[in-house]
Design brief:
heterotrimer, A alpha+beta, B alpha+beta, C mainly beta, B: alpha+beta, FAD/NAD(P)-binding domain, Gyrase A, domain 2, Alpha-Beta Plaits, 7-stranded mixed β-sheet, 50 strands, 21% helix, elongated, C: mainly beta, Folate-binding fold, 4-stranded antiparallel β-sheet, two-stranded antiparallel ribbon, 1 helix, 6 strands, 10% helix, globular
Chain lengths: 199, 1008, 93
């Protein structure tokens, strides 16, 4: 951690490192907790000026079409709703940079890094696992890689971000992380689940 | 009795794979590909069930989902599945099936005595007989249910796995017979996403029991080729053993897939059944049709079955329905059975056709050649045989068909294959709210105008000839795909040339006359599953049941597991005759889901046990668990209720925790408190609208308690909100209410005040919150805090009550609020959730010298109740205004706010509204039950006028006595008066009305 | 379960939405001059028709936006959905 303090991710109590494996060939799905990403909730009217400032200071465009995402380097911008995005980054100073950059604009940036747990669901059976608990149509023709949507997965609200053909990043409220992790392990059991540590 | 009815060859069974199974404990053998029903028939087992009401012996009646008789329990112990249709159970090695509804055995059933008294048991018998005395009904009901019954549910948890999943498609096709396969081929080749579901193990439907050739190949081979072609299409999903049971709004359909019911046990990790929730852009219904029985005298003896079923058993399973089969029909469709039976070396006793004219069906032309006697204009007027059919009495009909005449001829037979015409399976179409139309020629209801995006094709559309099934199916599949946006670039029409004659007319004679009038002597069964006879329908009509829906409920016809699949049209015809109406004028009953029963397992899926509901965890949850906390459900959170030490009772633990806070210091995990970050130039203006008090002039770094109301003036939520910057607030809501309050703020911002420049973000989970409360709270915090002037030396001014500071606590960046819900000097520390556990542990360590104690929600409730602080949801219930709670001072006169106008409505200002008060019981150890009613006088005989109720009630360790908060009519004008709380066990408790602030009413301690 | 076309996210299952009652009921600006009866009309009285009904929904487990829908209360047909501030469509298709 950047600040050097001891920190616990939302799934720390599950001691995932102890059950993580290297070999995942037989697993239909691989589950990974992606802890301590910087998540910023940004609300703004996506005016050209706002988009320019964001791309100058964060290096990333702002997706204005519903359910789209943008990515540049380590920074991702996920459309959450009209005038609302989730900016995801590895760099701790993102919020401060944005606050400074948008001073004088009616643009709100709020640090919500610890409000989420991010679980990466990958593998050939990823879509089948999601289909067990989510009414969203994840077919390539509707929800290709790059798409993002808030929806329900089992009984938890999630933000689903399809980052590759068989990879989904699931953002879930931290308090639901344990429930959702157990649900994913259960739903994936039919196809074989491997727990993998974040790179 | 052990002779085999299996043919020498043919059928789709695998004769190289014998399978052993048991029925009622007796061992039999069948083949792979058999159903339980076909295997029992092959073994000569005719008696398989006792009927529902009269306990009459019953045999296998059909070959599919419509089976009313052969309901069996499959499996033992926890895996037992009652009321399963033997006609749909695939045979597997070791299958154990049991008959139901008989005692002591199927052959000698004591309940059959009911049949002797059946004249006394007409429709509506129970309603008429067991009405008096009224209080006895429940006693009667238990016994009636035991005597007349279906199977019993197992009482142990099901060991198998059941699962659910969603699916989306462009075209969902229901039924994999000729029409369904054609539809799938047409839709599949366009590239559309197609799901084809069929309830059987094999696709093909009626093609699997067809003997005619299709373009040189057998019908079954054509089906197999079609399935192979479909399997190669990447966007086509084939679901065998999958019953589409429900058609809901907006093309949402439910499918029950029996993944492993045909196996002795599911393979590890896979479910036994899976429920599909399918959203289809377009639906093609190709569900086929159901044959109807003929309603003749004693038409229910074991050995009497539907002609189509007999043909299916012969051609698909290689089983003869009997050694000598009598065919009884009112239409052409039964003639091919006679041909097939003769070809298989079977003995056809005769064909009895209700129609006087010769059938024009090609199969009928061959009767002479096959030396099969055809009796035209004749009827079966009765049958003989107790546990199995022995003979049929055949008589000539008069010209009108309403009486039998002439001599009776007794024809020996051990099976009657009957056909009363066919009813299209319009169930799903009707569930989709499509209108049904009556077709006079078919004597059946067919689909009319569709309401949803759905099409019907083939037999379920009233098209019974094979050629039309293929064509209609193909066209429906193609059109459905086109409507979903898909067309084939190079259309292939791989349809076979089927030559099959159109069926001739149906002669509806209902009931078929016998020697004695209907209702006297033998029974004419209409609904076999519910033992409803033609006489019962007549009685209902005579008693004034003119509506088909009422008749259904009065006679129970059309109820049960088969939902009247074979009986509904016959019942309707009988009712129409009685009422002298045409069938369409009587109307059909509404079809409702499910089409066939669905197991609770499949409906529940994995939403059981630990996955039944989410359990929300705070960052410190693991510590609470390790500390052995007792937990309380607060919404979906599990919050520590109290932390019992070794042998402590709840009361002892709570007392210890309360006193620690009052006398030294305690810490509470308050992470569940809702938090909403509000930013923008108009943030204060927003709060002014939302809260009842004033916010504009609140200084940066200060906090304020606020109450918010709905537009009707009732309290919605409360909490402390801090001003973090000129344009930045952090609102606290009650636990579990953050989403609701956030939705409330968004509602107004988005719909009413779009120009207001304020934005709200829920940040509840970003922070871990620890409340540090008690006279030593400041000292404890001082040991850990850096960069925050706690006012140790300078007194309160540095960090006064209701203010907020930022700094570092235990090395962690923190925001510290000085607020109090306990009445003590108190802080709430927010740190990032990832550091919550570290902070919690640091506070415990640093607090050791003060004897710091973690306290749970129960202690918190006691502490706040001692102070008379309300809890939303406890003191409020959606009918309580801030005025009722005595919060006049928090209601601004300077501005408008949501709900304000309502507070001045006449009803809101009445002096006798229920108002918040405290209650002190006469006996200090008497803790009133929460929710108890309050009366003004010493309670006498009821009725008593309730004056209010107890909202919170505790034993207060601080005061050494019980305390209660209550809402009391005109309460604030009654301070000092005595009221009474009637008790269930011991008369009543007397209590004195007091101010709700029991402890430190001036608030000296929290400023400490 | 209904399939509701969110004006932003497209068709989604009903479980993602929250119902918000009748649409196009503006908060009176002059609440203080209204009689008790007129105020109660605003707070409590709704048309509750059988047939087409303009009503509010929120895509609460989605984009979070409130929007309006024209729905037939007898058949559940959703004739149209439209954003807050947009006029009610005629519903002809």
């Amino acid at each position: 951690m950047a600040d050097g303090l001891p920190a616990q991710g939302a799934l720390a109590h599950r001691r995932l490192a102890a059950c993580a494996v290297e070999e995942t060939r037989d697993a239909g799905v691989r589950l990974t907790e992606m802890p301590f990403r910087v998540c910023i909730n940004m609300r703004a009217q996506a005016t050209p000026e706002v988009r320019t400032i964001l791309s100058q200071h964060a290096g990333c465009g702002l997706p204005v079409q519903p359910m789209e995402s943008a990515r540049r380097g380590t920074l991702g911008a996920l459309w959450l709703g009209p005038e609302e995005w989730l900016l995801v980054s590895g760099s701790d100073d993102l919020r401060d940079r944005l606050v400074t950059a948008f001073r004088g604009h009616f643009v709100t940036v709020t640090d919500v890094s610890d409000a989420y747990c991010i679980v990466r669901l990958a593998g050939p059976a990823a879509r089948d696992v999601l289909a067990k608990g989510c009414g969203l149509d994840t077919h390539d023709s509707v929800f290709p890689p790059g798409k993002v949507a808030r929806s329900l997965l089992a009984k938890a609200e999630v933000t689903l971000h399809r980052t590759a053909a068989d990879v989904f990043e699931i953002y879930v409220a931290r308090s639901y992380a344990d429930y959702l992790w157990r649900w994913l392990e259960d739903a994936g059991a039919e196809y074989g689940v491997a727990v993998v540590e974040a790179a | 009795m052990t002779r085999s009815f299996r043919t020498g060859e043919g059928g789709r069974i695998d004769r190289s794979k014998p399978i052993g199974f048991t029925f009622d404990g007796k061992t039999y053998a069948g083949f792979a590909g058999d159903t339980l029903a076909s295997a029992l028939l092959a073994n000569g087992v005719r008696l398989v069930a006792r009927s529902f009401k009269y306990h009459r012996p019953r045999g296998i009646f059909s070959a599919g989902a419509e089976e009313p008789n052969a309901l069996v329990r499959v499996g033992d112990g926890a895996r037992a599945l009652p009321n399963t249709r033997a006609t749909q159970v695939e045979l597997y090695e070791g299958l154990a099936a049991y008959s139901q509804n008989n005692w002591p055995s199927l052959r000698f059933d004591a309940g059959a005595a009911a049949n002797l008294f059946s004249r006394l048991l007409p429709a509506g018998f129970y309603y008429k007989t067991f009405m008096r005395p009224k209080r006895m009904w429940q006693w009667y009901e238990r016994r009636i249910r035991r005597a007349a019954g279906m199977g019993r549910a197992p009482d142990a948890p099901d060991p198998d796995l059941y699962d659910k999943r969603h699916a989306h498609c462009d075209v969902l096709i229901v039924g994999g017979g000729p029409a369904g396969l054609s539809a799938a081929l047409a839709a599949g080749q366009t590239g559309a996403r197609v799901i084809l579901a069929d309830e059987q193990s094999e696709f093909g439907g009626t093609l699997l029991g067809e003997t005619g050739k299709l373009g040189g190949a057998s019908a079954a081979d054509w089906a197999a080729d079609a399935v192979a072609e479909l399997s190669a299409m990447p966007e086509v999903r084939l679901l065998p053993r999958a019953t589409v049971f429900g058609y809901y709004d907006h093309n949402h359909l439910g499918i029950a897939e029996r993944v492993a019911d045909h196996l002795p046990a599911p393979t590890a990790g896979t479910p036994r059944q899976r429920l599909w929730k399918v959203r289809a852009k377009q639906v093609v219904l190709a569900a086929g049709s159901h044959e109807r029985p003929l309603v003749f005298a004693d038409n229910d003896r074991p050995g009497i079955m539907l002609a189509g079923a007999a043909r299916s058993y012969l051609n698909r399973y290689g089983v003869r329905a009997g050694s000598r089969v009598l065919i009884f029909t009112n239409n052409d469709s039964a003639y091919p059975l006679a041909v097939d039976l003769a070809a298989a070396g079977g003995d056809v006793a005769a064909v009895v056709d209700l129609r006087p004219a010769a059938s024009q069906h090609p199969a009928a032309w061959r009767m002479d050649e096959l030396k099969i006697e055809v009796l035209r204009g004749y009827a079966v007027a009765g049958t003989k045989g107790r546990l199995r059919l022995k003979s049929a009495t055949v008589m000539a009909l008069n010209a009108d068909g309403n009486e039998v005449a002439g001599g009776a001829r007794e024809i020996a037979c051990d099976a009657i294959a009957m056909s009363g015409g066919w009813s299209p399976a319009v169930h799903l179409f009707s569930q989709s709210r499509g209108a049904l139309e009556y077709d006079e020629v078919l004597a059946a209801f067919v689909p009319g105008r569709a309401v949803q995006a759905t099409r019907s094709a083939g037999a379920c559309n009233g098209s019974f000839d094979l050629h039309r099934c293929f064509l209609e199916g193909f066209d429906a599949g193609k059109a459905a795909a086109a409507d979903a946006g898909f067309t084939a670039e190079d259309e292939q029409r791989p349809l076979p040339a089927a030559t099959q004659a159109k069926p001739g007319p149906v002669r509806m004679i209902n009931p078929v006359p016998s020697i004695r009038p209907v209702g006297q002597g033998p029974k004419h069964f209409v609904d076999f599953q519910n033992d409803v006879t033609a006489a019962d329908i007549g009685l209902a009509a005579r008693e004034g049941y003119a509506s088909v829906e009422h008749t259904k409920r009065y006679t129970t016809t059309g109820m049960g597991t088969d939902q009247g699949k074979t009986s509904s049209l016959n019942a309707l015809g009988l009712l129409a005759d009685q009422l002298a109406l045409a069938i369409p004028d009587v109307g059909a009953t509404t079809f409702r889901p499910p089409y066939t029963p669905v197991t609770f397992g499949a409906l529940a899926g994995r939403d059981i046990g630990e996955l039944y509901a989410p359990l929300r965890r705070t960052p410190m949850q693991r510590w609470h668990e390790d500390a052995g906390a007792a937990f309380e459900d607060v919404g979906q959170w599990k919050r520590p209720f109290y932390y019992p030490r070794r042998s402590e009772t709840k009361e002892q633990a709570v007392r210890r925790e309360v006193l620690a806070v009052r006398n030294s210091v305690g810490i509470l995990d308050a992470s569940t408190l809702g938090k909403i970050d509000i930013k923008g130039p108009d943030a204060a203006a927003l709060l002014d609208w939302i809260y009842t008090n004033d916010w504009a002039r609140l200084g940066v770094g200060r906090c304020r308690y606020g109450v918010m109301c709905r537009e009707d003036g009732m309290v919605l939520d409360d909490g402390v909100t801090a001003r973090l910057g000129e344009e930045h607030f952090l609102m606290h809501t009650t636990s579990g209410n953050a989403e609701r309050v956030s939705a409330w703020l968004e509602e107004w911002l988005q719909t009413e005040w779009p120009a207001m420049r304020a934005r709200c973000t829920v940040v509840t989970e970003h922070y871990a919150t620890v409340a540090v409360a008690g006279p030593n709270a400041r000292r404890l915090l001082a040991a850990l805090a850096a960069g925050i002037d706690l006012g140790i030396d300078m007194g309160n001014a540095a960090f006064p009550h209701m203010s907020v500071r930022e700094g570092v606590v235990a090395g962690i960046p923190a925001r510290v609020f000085r607020v109090s819900y306990t009445g003590e000097l108190s802080y709430e520390i927010n740190v990032k959730a990832r550091h919550g556990l570290t902070l919690w542990r640091a506070l415990l360590t640093a607090g050791e010298r003060f004897g710091v104690m973690p306290f749970g929600t129960e202690a918190m409730h006691v502490l706040r109740a001692e102070k008379g602080y309300i809890m939303v949801g406890q003191e409020t219930d959606g009918t309580v205004t801030p005025l009722d709670l005595g919060m006049e001072r928090a209601i601004s006169t300077r501005k408008d706010f949501l709900g304000k106008r309502s507070l001045s409505r006449a009803d809101m200002t009445k002096p006798d509204r229920k108002q918040l008060v405290g209650l002190l019981t006469e006996d200090p150890d008497d803790v009133l039950p929460e929710g108890a009613h309050i009366v003004a006088e010493q309670p006498g005989k009821p009725p008593l006028q309730a004056q209010g109720h107890v909202t919170s009630s505790y034993y207060s360790p601080t005061l050494g006595r019980s305390i209660a908060l209550a809402l009391l009519r005109g309460g604030r004008g009654q301070l000092g008066r005595q009221v009474f709380v009637p008790r269930e066990d011991c008369g009543s408790s007397a209590a004195t009305v007091v101010d709700p602030a029991f402890y430190d009413p001036k608030g000296v301690r929290l400023h400490g | 379960m209904l399939r509701i076309p969110c004006p932003f996210c497209g068709p989604r299952d009903e479980s993602e939405f929250a119902y918000g009652g009748e649409a196009h009921i503006a908060r009176p600006e002059n609440s203080w001059t209204l009689s008790d009866g007129d105020w109660a009309d605003y707070v409590f009285m709704r048309t509750n028709p059988k047939g087409r009904h303009a009503e509010r929904w929120r895509h609460s487990h989605g984009c979070g936006r409130w929007f309006n829908a024209l729905r037939d209360t007898a058949t559940h047909e959703i004739v149209a959905t439209y954003r807050i501030g947009e006029p009610t469509p005629t519903g002809r298709r």
